[in-house]
Amino acid sequence: METITLTKLDPNFKFELAEKPGAANIRKCYACGTCTAGCPVFHVEHTYNPRKLIHKILLGMREQVLSSKVIWLCLRCYTCTANCPHDVDFSNIMMSLREMAIEEGYAPPEILEQIDFLTTAANDLRKDCINLFLHEGDITKEQIRENFEKMLQQIEKPGF
Ligand code: SF4
Ligand code: SF4
């Protein structure tokens, strides 16, 4: 269980975030958990939980949220945004959280480019694996291994 240090809470965090594009409805969240239930990242990594992240934002846990490594796991797929019964646009809120994390020195600016690269490379690999499975096109297991190796070689540790 995570410890909450009352003196470290920032009551302005949610108001500041609500001023960012698409984030105005964050305070309407009533913790129903629909976002988490449909989140593809939560299904493979339970430490990533949009409902809990929003709860921490509303509590004012600024440092814990912005310094958290899990905010870089979101795919920004908009599933949570589409499913939320209270129109909380968490996909765009996540972009604002990432920008704030960089602005406040919790992550280096180049991480955004790195995440975009990994997302595109992972989608390419997925497409190739499905084509292999379906016997579509000329892709071979050897080519997929080579592409995967190339992707690994291009991962630079962001240094935080
Ligand atoms: S689906 Fe919407 S209201 Fe429900 S927990 Fe997620 S953000 Fe909050
Ligand atoms: S945008 Fe992020 S939090 Fe929302 S469903 Fe997709 S991966 Fe999960």
UniProtKB/TrEMBL annotation:
GO terms for cellular component: plasma membrane. It comes from the Bacteria. Coiled coil: none annotated. GO terms for molecular function: 4 iron, 4 sulfur cluster binding; metal ion binding; oxidoreductase activity. The keyword Acyltransferase does not apply. PROSITE patterns: 4FE4S_FER_1, 4FE4S_FER_2. Residues 20-49 form the 4Fe-4S ferredoxin-type domain. Pfam families: Fer4_8. Keywords: 4Fe-4S, Iron, Iron-sulfur, Metal-binding, Oxidoreductase. This is Putative CoB--CoM heterodisulfide reductase, subunit C.
